[in-house]
């Protein structure tokens, strides 16, 4: 088996059901999902301690799901059977709810960072947000997408925020509050202001 095919030497790439320019908005969208998957893999290398076995298992599951999302986004074939499903979103929501209870209550915006592992997860969070923006742009140009993928990536960034805080908490590392932040979380609810956590 040869790794190279030479079929992309003229700037086009194969997608499910056709070929597109490598800078096509669809290619950008699933390419960013691939980038995100790589960062999740890197983050996993920072979570080898026994205290993170649950997170490592979940992140491995998410890597497989990101492959599903990338496949769905790369499909231009009309009858392609999408793989991403509502169960994937429900799982993330359940885990987010649990992790919010584990970490200390949040009152202000925080800076991405703390421990190295949490910082890597924050990188995942921001790449997920970029992927989400690119999927929205694809949708706005009337291209067919699996709507579950958009919802999943949106929820995934929330999940990353939640586990970044849990990682710091388990390691005994405090989150660093943004020094000019107002009190934006009241009674466990977020005011309607831009933030680095959830939308």
Task: Give a description of the structure.
The protein is mostly helical. It has a single domain, classed as Cobalamin adenosyltransferase-like (Hypothetical Protein Ta1238, Chain: A), CATH 1.20.1200. The chain contains five helices and four strands, in the order ββαααααββ. The strands form two sheets. It has a two-stranded antiparallel ribbon with strand order 1-2. A two-stranded antiparallel ribbon has the order 3-4. β1 (12-15) and β2 (18-21) form a beta hairpin. It starts with 11 loop residues before the first strand and ends in a 9-residue tail after the last strand. The model has no long low-confidence stretch (mean pLDDT 90).
Per DSSP, the total helix count is: 5
| Topology-level CATH name | Hypothetical Protein Ta1238, Chain: A
Q: Can you name the CATH architecture?
A: Up-down Bundle
End-to-end separation in angstroms reads 44 Å
State the helical fraction: 40-55%
Query: Beta-strand percentage?
Result: 5-15%
Keywords summarizing the entry:
single chain, 199 residues, Hypothetical Protein Ta1238, Chain: A, two-stranded antiparallel sheet, PduO-typ
Write the layout of secondary structure elements.
Blueprint: E1 12-15, E2 18-21, H1 25-44, H2 53-73, H3 86-102, H4 116-140, H5 147-171, E3 185-186, E4 189-190
Helix pairs in contact: 1-2, 1-4, 3-5, 4-5
